[in-house]
Amino acid sequence: MTFLRVIGFSLVMLLGFMGVSHLLPxxxxxxxxxxxxxxxxxxxxxxxxxxxxxxTGKGTCTLCHNGMGRxxxxxxxxxxxxxxxxxxxxxxxxxxxxxxxxxxxxxYILESMKDPSAFxxxxxxxxxxNDTESPMPTADKAPIELTVVEMNAVVAFLQDRAELEPxxxxxxAEDAPVAEEPVxxxxxxxxxxxxxxxxxxxxxxNLNDSGADIGPELGGIGSRLSRALVMESIIDPNAVIxxxxxxxFMPADFGEQMQLTELLLLTDYLMALPEPAAVSxxxxxxxxxxxxxEVVENYGCSGCHDLNDSKADIxxxxxxxxxxxxxxxxxxxxxxxEAVIxxxFEGGMMPDDxxxxxxxxxxxxxxxxxxxxxx
Amino acid sequence: MKISHLIALLxxxxxxxxPDLVLAATDEAARVLEGAPKPSRLDYPVIAGISARKLAWSxxxxxxxxxxxxxxxxxxxxxxxxxxxxxxxxxxxxxxxxFMKITMAAYSxxxxxxxxxxxxxxxxxxxxxxYMIKVFRGQMLIYxxxxxxxxxxLYIYFYSWDALRRxxxxxxxxxxGLVLNTVGLTLMFIxxxxxxxxxxPAGIDxxxxxxxxxxxxxxxxxxxxxxxxxxxxxxxxxxxIVGGYAAYMxxxxxxxxxxxxxxxxxxxxxxxxxxxxxxxxFAGYWxxxxxxxxxxQMGITAMGGILAWLFxxxxxxxxxxxxxxxxxLWSGLMRTDRGAEYAKYVKYIAVVIVGGFLVWVTxxxxxxxxxxxxxxxxxxxxxxxxxxxxxxxxxxxxxxxxFTFMSFQLFYRSSRIPVVSWAxxxxxxxxxxxxxxxxxxxxxxxxxxxTPTVYKVGAxxxxxVSTLTIIIGSVILDVFMLRGAKSExxxxxxxxxxxxxxxxxxxxxxxxxxxxxxxxxxxLRTNWHIYTVMKDNSPENYIxxxxxxxxxxxxxxxxFMAIMVFVFWLSRLGKTIQKxxxxxxxxx
Lengths: 375, 588
Fold this sequence. Notes:
The complex is a heterodimer.
Chain A: H1 2-23, E1 36-37, H2 44-56, H3 79-87, H4 102-114, H5 148-161, E2 178-179, H6 192-199, H7 221-224, H8 227-235, H9 254-257, H10 260-271, H11 292-299, H12 327-335, H13 354-357, H14 360-371
Antiparallel strand pairs in A: 1-2
Helix pairs in contact in A: 2-5, 2-8, 4-5, 6-10, 8-10, 11-14, 12-14
Chain B: H1 3-22, H2 28-31, H3 52-87, H4 90-124, H5 126-159, H6 168-199, H7 214-218, H8 223-252, H9 256-277, H10 280-294, H11 296-303, H12 310-332, H13 339-343, H14 346-360, H15 370-376, H16 390-414, E1 416-417, H17 423-449, H18 453-481, E2 486-487, H19 497-523, E3 528-530, E4 534-535, H20 546-573, H21 583-587
Antiparallel strand pairs in B: 1-2, 3-4
Helix pairs in contact in B: 1-5, 1-6, 3-4, 3-6, 3-8, 3-20, 4-5, 4-20, 5-6, 6-8, 8-9, 8-10, 8-19, 10-11, 12-14, 12-16, 12-19, 14-16, 16-17, 16-18, 17-18, 19-20
């Protein structure tokens, strides 16, 4: 009996420890093989966009270059003023010492990636080395292993942040393709359709017959924009606004959310989209919705709101909204979304013309539908 | 020729010949400047759908558990044997012998599982093993030779116990034990060299070409921190398992004399377990500091990246160990008549231990949905969030260690009344040590909140120094103050049954914790067999999720528990005499 009690007690304890490992947030491993994507044809905006993605992704730069004090916070500091002061620092004796201009800064940044100890900013050296030895790993060596094109892209990104015209060479067909290594073992999507689903592109753009028209039509975009501009539009959507559309509608953090290969695959997919079929006058706007769910689908609400488990988090969750708001308040929020911004969310994200776009009947159906949505 | 002389000769022979093999500046393999192999995914054998990684993982972890046990028990045995000589108390000697008997059965199982590990690595990771053999060349042969030597000394040490029990012969016996432990520790240090080389390779160039000696590869940056960490952990682990055995025997025995013996054994084992455990966080701190110094990326992966959540599980486990060990010590106060006088302090100690535990398990950044962030007003809880960062956790762990030591001190004091003239002043100095030390620990913790991240780490140093000062200072003072003290009777066996379950918590939690640490250490290499030198391109080169790791560690721990039950059963079987016969008949 004693034996059974002891074994039972030990088993309960073991299950308890195992249970804790199940309760904690899980990072699912990446089981896919690395895929390679060509960088051929990228122009400078594309290089800048690629550089940003590398800076926060494969390059693992933001592990230390952040506000925690391990390395200079390159994303927050005034790089336009910082780079020239570095080149003129009396302790700096590297390839660009005493020089000026964007080309010298290119040399300085490249040197700092390939030989981080060539110049260590005061206070950021290894302990006990009096700032003569940098703790930073060499970017083109293991475990980071950035290619020449990738390092150039990071330089272009940093030059752009310093308000300089990037001076790095553009990639060619002979350059090695980029291959994304799992940085945090979160699986990168390898199918562009999955990428579109994951990031909810079709909620605002007319993609995969979604019919959405909050953002510009993407069919035939390859004939209107270069590959680099398409990439830039994904990462920095406010850089160029298409005619007839407003700024600040598209989330500006896809560059941080997407992995590098996802960005390149999505760009290639969009570039290959055929021109959309001509739409007759009669078809414009489509038939009026007859149920609340149809209104939700036609106007792409679940692209930004977590609705029926869509998991979108740009706007507040809509399931159970009736617990927080009355029907009149819901209607007011649709008509004038800027009037009250829910805590934890930003203004300027939701279109303010739904009042013009929807018929009164559609509005009534939508409000009724939302009011009856359970958690 | 006497046995001890033979062993001495063997030791000298190893010492003379080993350096030639271990420290060889160059040899045939070293002259070939060939990089590490680069196997593709297809180069990894797939056999009958067996998960190569899970098999190697299970074998390695099981071997480590058993090896830690068979390494720890001889350490434990020689220490207790020495105590029996110093105190003249035969209980120490009997206990050491009893445990060496168990080690005999566990030893062959350790070798068996070690063979399984080697086989699984050779079959499923041939390129890695080929390269490792090339790097460590003669050292692997020395490992095999030492293993043979350890077997010989182990058998001699155990079977000569009664023959070399009294007088000068006891010193011969302890010398054999010393050789046994030296060989055992050397084996562990060699195996640690291979493991740490995979994390922080040395003696090779960036392509993996061998440019240095075996000694350079051995003395890689993480070797010594790992040696110290595992050495201390083994002592704690050995103590915990022996404590579990003693607790089981205490519960199973009806005879009050035997019950008293196993109660004493449980207390002594718990003492040794906690003795090894108290400096363990500091050894872990050194290991992590060296990891950061070697590769900042590796350090951040552990502490701030995808593995950061593991340290919440670690906190749960260590908190459980601390609570159980303290509970056992508090229960022990009932063994002495003056224990009740000290029991009034227990509630305050309990508040600190539980409070420290809660702080340690508080995460900093919470994984939340947008709605939860909205309700909370951010990803960090306004009140509890600050408890998730390092200054709070360092403060918590140091206070937990200080108060665990205090629990020990209370029990120790409960059976001794100081008779020295300066006892009152001495007690005041002890109290002052605690007050100043605790104030310093809390103050340095608060300073951590107002200083940049890089200095936060530095703020933990005075905390560690304070903790060590309290412990070492109190021990030194007690040694002098309790010299010739009036001893009170300790009623061994006067313990509740419930208290014995605290002694089961220790080995189970320790085993799971060691499995978790193995998972973390191995995961730090991410998708590299040998960090930055040889990539792991196998289909299972990813870091398993916490859920999968938790399941695997639990399964391995269960397997180990089953083995230990078998080993304990074997040792009891050896004492069992067939009904109707006598021990004398059995001997003939």
